[in-house]
Write a structure and sequence with these properties.
alpha/beta; 5 strands; 52% helix; disordered N terminus; binds adenosine-5'-diphosphate; binds thymidine-5'-diphosphate
Length: 218
């Protein structure tokens, strides 16, 4: 069962490229599991408005801060520092919940940094992210990863439509880069195939009720 014997909740990271449907899946799982009586806590990364590192990363991806965005490792460091600042909150959430659902987590940094560096899931960037975030920053390793299986074209179309419909969510540099999105998608699929750090589930964002139940009993 998802509730562990020692009373610490299960940590689940939802991953996928921009527009894949992560927030939609997190919302669907949360309401389903809460209806089933589970205590569910959700968190989303980057923590815009809460973390100066997350805000600077977003500003850089929208054209500010000179050439900061041109460094894949500098951008990844900002996202990692955002998470490092949330480590205590994640641990507290785990202590008080059956499930902690994260909308993006360390695997986002692994996939985007590797893709930006032209590497695959076995390259130096993925290793560096794991060492930095799980060892140096001592962030908890997820018990499960959920990867949303959606064609990159579909996800990119949704991200574009969202940007057009909502001027406060104009697409950033990563969302406008179709090649990057394809490369990130490929790295994510390798991470899933290799069960990077924990079991990975590859799911449709149209959450099948049976799958949510399977996850609950996994
Ligand atoms: N399965 C789906 N079918 C159609 N549209 C979807 C689906 N999942 C998400 N969307 C829509 O696509 C957009 C991106 O979804 P969202 O969950 O915000 O993605 P992400 O968090 O991965 O960027 C939103 O406008 C959402 O309503
Ligand atoms: C959390 C995180 C995001 N990213 C990237 C993925 C996205 O392209 C971008 C912004 O995150 P995203 O979750 O897509 O935010 P938004 O609400 O602005 O769409 O940052 C990383 O490269 N590393 C990370 O650790």
């Amino acid at each position: 069962m998802l509730t562990s014997l020692c009373g610490v909740g299960v940590l689940i990271a939802v991953e996928g490229i921009d527009g894949a449907g992560k927030r939609t899946l997190v919302d669907g799982l949360t309401s389903r599991w809460r209806d089933a009586g589970r205590r569910v806590t959700t968190m989303a990364f980057p923590r815009y408005g809460e973390s100066v590192h997350a805000d600077i990363a977003a500003e850089a991806l929208h054209g500010s801060h000179g050439d900061l965005r041109s460094s894949a490792y500098a951008m990844a460091m900002l996202f990692a520092l955002d998470r490092a600042g949330a480590a205590a909150d994640i641990r507290a959430a785990l202590a008080g919940s059956d499930v902690v659902l994260l909308d993006r987590y360390v695997a986002s940094n692994a996939a985007y940094t590797a893709a930006r560096c032209g590497e695959d899931a076995t390259g130096e960037a993925v290793e560096w992210v794991a060492e930095l975030e799980f060892h140096r920053f001592a962030l908890p390793v997820p018990d499960h990863h959920l990867l949303i299986d959606v064609p990159a074209e579909v996800a990119m179309g949704r991200a574009a439509a969202r940007g057009d419909a909502d001027t406060t969510r104009g697409r950033d540099l990563y969302e406008r880069d179709n090649t990057l999105q394809h490369d990130v998608d490929a790295v994510y699929r390798q991470l899933a195939q290799n069960n990077w750090l924990s079991p990975w589930w590859v799911l449709d964002a149209n959450l099948a009720p049976s799958l949510a139940d399977d996850l609950l009993t996994a």
